[in-house]
Design goal:
Order of helices and strands: HHHHHHHEHHHHEHHHH
GO molecular function, one term: branched-chain amino acid transmembrane transporter activity
Organism: Plasticicumulans acidivorans
Keywords: Cell membrane, Membrane, Transmembrane, Transmembrane helix
Strand content: under 5%
Protein name: Amino acid/amide ABC transporter membrane protein 2 (HAAT family)
Membrane topology: Multi-pass membrane protein
């Protein structure tokens, strides 16, 4: 675990694992699961900055994912925009929306903040479902393939390298932000917003910045996942999906970047592993999550790290 504690040790370890994974995965199905884990991990890393470090809950984060996905789908499918321009425009549009709503929403605290972000996510989901002429309505819409300067990734393996690279970049950006003055300010806000304000921290600006950053992470992941799957539906922006994203951060370990990655991997893999249980799948899934949080209340990665340190001390 010492390697994971160093600034870039964990990143190098993860990069080595990602390099080996395509050769260990025996078929396209396993690579597809790995791609979906990477998509969720990118979103969870960004959301962890907001929840784990700044202490601001968001129950509507899937809305930003859905907006990113539909922006790319509409701009590429209906208006024939280049994929790279649609992706950048989606990220910029989501960043602007997040900036506009962040200041009034982040004035709230506790369950009031949770309800406000829940309302935001529900509005996005309803708009995507009801604007049938633009979004295809509840049935969703097809998304053209990703073409970047004449190159189009074909198959799960090609997409794997895209998602793996973006995941490493997301982690690197998150780690650098955590070690920056903004990251230290966010930890101060999480500890005591009043004390941080007295110490001279512009708490409102810090919270707005991290809200926008986490939204952009989700939008980019949403855009790429739309091109990868070739189809989008309003379900991607649903409340249940937002809860899943928050659960990834919490169960992996809040204020732990690699914990968020681990939580995303667990939450993506478990339904695949339990699919054979049929009627008992959700029962066992819920039981595993409940036991995990009882045994390791700080999250999987911090809990395992603490357990190993205790064993060494003994």
């Amino acid at each position: 675990m010492k390697l994971l504690d160093s600034r870039y040790g964990g990143l190098l370890l993860l990069a080595a694992g990602l390099l080996l994974l395509p050769w260990l995965a025996g078929n396209a199905y396993l690579l597809d699961v790995a791609n979906r884990i990477a998509i969720n991990a990118i979103i969870a890393v960004g959301l962890n900055l907001l929840i784990g470090y700044a202490g601001q809950i968001s129950l509507g984060h899937a809305g930003f994912l859905g907006l990113g996905a539909y922006a790319s789908a509409i701009l590429c499918g209906s208006y024939d925009w280049p994929a790279w321009l649609a992706l950048l425009s989606a990220a910029a549009g989501v960043a602007l929306l997040a900036f506009l709503v962040a200041r009034p929403i982040l004035r709230l605290k506790g369950h009031y903040l949770a309800m406000a972000t829940l309302g935001l996510g529900m509005i996005v989901s309803l708009v995507l479902s009801n604007e049938s002429a633009l979004t295809g309505g509840p049935d969703g819409m097809a998304v053209p393939g990703l073409v970047l300067f004449g190159w189009e990734p074909q198959g799960e393996r090609a997409w794997y390298w895209i998602f793996a690279t973006l995941l490493l970049l997301a982690i690197w950006l998150a780690q650098n932000l955590i070690d920056s003055p903004l990251g230290r300010a966010l930890r101060a806000v999480h500890g005591s917003e009043v004390a941080a304000r007295v110490a001279g921290v512009d708490t409102t600006a810090c919270k707005v910045q991290v809200f926008v950053i986490s939204a952009v992470f989700a939008a980019i992941a949403g855009s790429l996942s739309a091109h990868y799957t070739g189809f989008v539906t309003p379900g991607q922006a649903s409340f249940l999906h937002s809860v899943e994203l928050v659960t990834m951060v919490v169960i992996g370990g809040m204020a732990s970047t690699y914990g968020a990655v681990l939580g995303a991997a667990l939450m993506t893999l478990l339904p695949q592993l339990l699919s054979g249980l049929e009627d008992y799948e959700m029962l066992v899934f819920g039981l595993i999550l409940m036991v995990s949080m009882i045994v390791l209340p700080q999250g999987l990665l911090p809990g395992l790290r603490g357990w190993l340190q205790t064993r060494r001390a003994a």
